């Protein structure tokens, strides 16, 4: 399948280029176009940044805010399926969907195709088989997102780069770690869990999982899991891997509450590069994170929607690279996000 890659904002700035060009069309041509957007939940730090940028950018491109419907799936697939039905009955011009359960994508695709409405999936990637159907049938359906394997690998590399001597605080020759996972049905959680550890073993390090728990991307859960891990196995924990920053921020609170100090007697990595996490990396309170470029992804999704509306069409997979964020470059990423 042909794949397209969009630049991260970092790469775009470094190359002094602008974002992917959208075919020329007068700004106002989109004013009467209706966009239906479904988010898996509004209660997710990263997806809140994403949705805010998505709406801002669509308005910048000439869509009327009143014609952009953004719906909260409340983390419930039945709720979201009802919302998708309503948007289809409403005859929106394009759908942008962040699935609650990507496993039900087939049914959603069928409904959109039958109604003749182009569809852009975001953030939660449908299965390979599902993506293959879009290409085989030449349907106006695409996925915009990042490959979570890369983010997991980068998390592992941040620890590998410290060297075993630094990380192996108890001197048992292994990296003793706790893993705090996002939603296990989501490939982002599956791949980050697998590939962060794979990066360690690929580098020849031995690993020991002290605890591996599901925190569902949530800060409070990140706190409770880390708190419990530190209370029961505290002394041996050398690294806490979190599938995202929200959970890492919770884990940091537990680490500091237990009187431990990141960078001295424990290491902590997340994914997303939330502003708060970047500040923690700069201050040395987090070892590192991985920038999940919500700006490039939101703009990429909106551009894909526009390309369907104008008839330009899209590849069936539009990818975006992650960027490793450590003390060395966290300030640069922060500057881009807060400028
Ligand atoms: C991931 C992100 C998480 C969470 C998840 C939702 O890409 O890193 O923080 O937002 O998407 O599907």
Helix content: 40-55%
Biggest β-sheet strands, sense, barrel: 7 strands, parallel
Which class of the largest domain in CATH terms? Alpha Beta
* Domain module tally: 2
* Bound heterogens, unique: beta-D-galactopyranose
Number of helices: 13
Question: What is the H/E order?
Answer: EHEHEHEHEHEHHEHEHEHEHEHEEH
Q: Separation of termini?
A: 37 Å
Low-confidence stretches: 16-21
List its traits.
alpha/beta, 45% helix, 13 strands, four-stranded parallel β-sheet, Rossmann fold, seven-stranded parallel β-sheet, 339 residues, binds beta-D-galactopyranose
Topology:
Blueprint: E1 4-6, H1 9-14, E2 35-39, H2 45-60, E3 68-72, H3 77-89, E4 94-97, H4 105-115, E5 119-122, H5 128-137, E6 141-146, H6 148-160, H7 164-167, E7 174-181, H8 187-202, E8 206-214, H9 219-233, E9 239-242, H10 245-257, E10 267-269, H11 275-283, E11 289-291, H12 294-310, E12 317-320, E13 323-325, H13 330-338
Parallel strand pairs: 1-12, 2-3, 2-4, 4-5, 5-6, 6-12, 7-8, 7-9, 9-10
Antiparallel strand pairs: 11-13
Helix pairs in contact: 2-12, 3-4, 6-8, 9-10, 11-13
Bound molecules: beta-D-galactopyranose.
Residues 44, 46-47, 123-124, 182, 186, 188, 217, 244, 246, 271-272, 292 line the site of beta-D-galactopyranose.
């Amino acid at each position: 399948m042909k794949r397209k890659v969009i630049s991260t904002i970092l790469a775009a700035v470094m190359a002094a280029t602008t974002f992917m060009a959208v075919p020329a069309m007068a700004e106002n041509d989109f004013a009467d176009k209706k966009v239906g957007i479904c988010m898996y939940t509004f209660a997710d730090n990263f997806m809140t940044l994403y949705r805010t940028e998505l709406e801002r950018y669509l308005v910048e491109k000439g869509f009327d805010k009143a014609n952009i419907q953004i719906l909260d799936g409340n983390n419930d697939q039945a709720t979201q399926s009802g919302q998708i039905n309503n948007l289809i009955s409403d005859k929106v011009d394009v759908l942008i969907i962040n699935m609650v359960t990507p496993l039900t994508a087939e049914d959603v695709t069928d409904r959109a195709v039958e109604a003749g409405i182009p569809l852009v999936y975001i953030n939660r990637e449908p299965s390979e088989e599902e993506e293959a159907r879009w290409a085989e049938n030449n349907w106006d359906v695409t996925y915009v997102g990042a490959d979570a394997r890369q983010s997991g690998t980068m998390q592992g590399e941040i620890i590998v780069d410290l060297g075993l001597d630094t990380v192996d605080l108890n001197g048992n020759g292994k990296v003793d770690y706790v893993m705090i996972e996002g939603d296990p049905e989501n490939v982002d959680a599956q791949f980050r869990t697998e590939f962060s550890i794979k990066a360690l073993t690929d580098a020849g390090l031995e690993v020991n999982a002290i605890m591996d728990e599901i925190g569902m991307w949530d800060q409070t859960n990140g706190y409770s899991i880390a708190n419990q891990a530190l209370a029961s196995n505290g002394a041996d924990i050398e690294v806490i891997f979190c599938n995202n920053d929200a959970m890492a921020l919770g884990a940091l609170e537990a680490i500091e509450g237990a009187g431990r100090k990141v960078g001295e007697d424990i290491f902590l990595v997340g994914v997303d590069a939330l502003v708060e996490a970047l500040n923690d990396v700069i201050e040395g309170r987090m070892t590192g994170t991985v920038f999940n470029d919500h700006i490039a992804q939101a703009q990429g999704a909106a551009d894909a929607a526009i390309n369907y509306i104008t008839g330009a069409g899209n590849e069936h997979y539009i990818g975006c690279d992650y960027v490793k964020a450590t003390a060395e470059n966290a300030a640069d990423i922060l500057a881009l996000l807060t400028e």
